[in-house]
Amino acid sequence: MNSNEILDMLQRHGVKPTANRIIIAGALAQASNPLSLSDLEVGIATIDKSSIFRTLATFKEHGLVHVIEDGSDSAKYELCHGTGDEHDSDRHVHFYCERCNRTFCLSQVHVPQVQLPAGYRVRGVNYLVKGLCPRCAAQAAMQQD
């Protein structure tokens, strides 16, 4: 994702494009997996942890990031490629590998529709599958042979 696309994405979600926000959105866009606050802090040495945290909170408030609670005691963040509307059109499954402790975005696997009783209103969905990623599953199979 280039800088013009990042600027456009921030503006579509109603987020003022400050230098820090552009850098953090760029880091999330370049990542192959969802990132924790610590991952971002290590990867972006020019921005302090509290500024990264505040930016992530702003991104969450504006529907720009998915926040994934994978059981690792550290929330992970990834860019949401939905429209920025209240309805999240980018709901998909995440996978947590119990061996390498990485979280994967499975954007091609959509979260199934859940029928809730009358009066309930969905504001977010966190659909997480746990197990072994392909690399760890192959390593485990080789160790059993």
Largest pleated sheet: 3 strands, antiparallel
In helices, the fraction of residues equals 25-40%
Strand-pairing-aware structural class = alpha+beta
Uncertain stretches: none
GO molecular function: DNA-binding transcription factor activity; transcription cis-regulatory region binding; zinc ion binding
Family: Belongs to the Fur family.
GO biological process, one term: negative regulation of DNA-templated transcription
Binding site for Zn(2+): 97, 100, 133, 136
Describe the structure.
The chain is an alpha+beta fold and 145 residues long. The protein has a single domain (3-144), classed as Arc Repressor Mutant, subunit A, CATH 1.10.10. Helix content is 37%, strand content 19%. It has a three-stranded antiparallel sheet. Strands 5-4-6 form a three-stranded mixed sheet, with no helix packed on it. Helix 1 (3-12) packs across helix 2 and helix 3 (37-43) crosses helix 4 (49-61). It is globular. The mean pLDDT is 88.
Secondary structure topology:
Layout: H1 3-12, H2 19-30, E1 35-36, H3 37-43, H4 49-61, E2 65-68, E3 76-79, E4 92-97, E5 103-110, E6 128-131, H5 134-144
Parallel strand pairs: 4-6
Antiparallel strand pairs: 1-3, 2-3, 4-5
Helix pairs in contact: 1-2, 3-4
